[in-house]
Design brief:
2 copies of one chain form a homodimer.
Chain A: H1 6-15, H2 23-35, H3 40-54, E1 56-57, E2 64-65, H4 71-74, E3 79-86, H5 89-96, E4 103-107, H6 125-134, E5 139-142, H7 148-163, E6 169-172, H8 188-196
Parallel strand pairs in A: 3-4, 3-5, 5-6
Antiparallel strand pairs in A: 1-2
């Protein structure tokens, strides 16, 4: 016999769909939500409703937004000649947290991955070409993760722009030992990359 | 600048109120909920709403229920002369999972803890006395955790029932080495308890 009433059991099942949350954690969260006197369930419920109703993709860069265009595309201080191509919206947050980049973004919502059945037409690549074609873009920085899929997407983007005869520079974010990292803990590919793309003293 | 739109930021803040969920996990969950195509946000939102609307405490044992009385109190096969006293609803689940106990429960919703300002009147103790007074109860099993608060609540319950001159047996769940546990990893108090409450061969 299940000692929990059905609405609680349903909430536990739904919480279990979240990444990294199993039966025990879902039960703990559900009981916490229920025991909370500060109306956590009401607040969460209305937040979830608002998120699904109000959040959509920016028609220009496909970042998440609740207004017509996203805050970055709307910002007149951002440099529209630079486009940074990323896999997903959380990558925009990561890059913004460095406070270095002042251009615009383009969120692909995926990476080319033949093994998972994701082809170039499944991600926002045609929109990227169209965007570069219709605006003054001087450089496209491909900031996908340094994984097999990230690298192949980078090469695909470079080839695609070349084939379209668009006069735009394509660059790739640097790969190497992260700040504070230690050589002895690094994998071979990272070390090889750090050596291969070493900078000459005069460039530093 | 916050690159996330407000409804998403609000959802992250609410998720952060859950136990064990910090900024990074909350962001990951919120983005997962948003990216999910199977309407996770809608399902979760309606589950939360139903939970807060339909779940209440059973007026007899104070376990969680969505009907007039809880499933255990309603079950005619449970022995009404046995009451197992626990701290919170999740303890009922833990005890039920052992498939051994066939009596009823009484959920205190807390333990006596003077340090946290929780006194006997803050938990469901007067309701327990009243329940024992008005029904045929032969034994009260106190199954609070073997912590300082759990032990003092046990002693308080025992004294309370004695003072009320109720002819009911009070017992405490056993404390000792858990099955599969190893002596060398056990704390002194557990080992002392296992020795002190050793069973004679004839009782096994």
């Amino acid at each position: 016999m299940d000692p929990y009433p059905k609405p609680l059991r349903d909430l536990i099942s739904q919480l279990k769909r979240l990444p990294g949350i199993g039966e025990k954690t879902a039960t703990r969260l559900a009981l916490f939500i229920l025991a909370d006197r500060a109306n956590l369930s009401g607040e969460l419920s209305s937040c979830l409703k608002r998120v699904s109703e109000q959040i959509h993709l920016c028609p220009v860069c496909f970042n998440l937004t609740d207004s017509q265009r996203c805050a970055i595309c709307r910002n007149p201080e951002r440099d529209p000649s630079l486009i940074c191509v990323v896999e997903e919206p959380s990558d925009v947050l990561a890059l913004e947290s460095a406070h270095v980049y002042r251009g615009l973004y383009h969120v692909l919502h995926g990476l080319i991955s033949p093994l998972s059945g994701v082809g170039p037409e499944d991600i926002r690549l045609s929109e990227l070409i169209e965007r570069i074609r219709t605006s003054q873009v001087s450089e496209v920085i491909v900031a996908t993760n340094p994984s097999v899929e990230g690298e192949s997407t980078f090469h695909y983007v470079a080839k695609m722009l070349q084939d379209a005869h668009l006069s735009v520079n394509v660059s790739r974010i640097a790969s190497g030992i992260p700040m504070g990292g230690e050589l002895k803990y690094m994998d071979q590919v990272t070390i090889a990359s750090a050596l291969r793309y070493r900078r000459s003293l005069k460039d530093i």
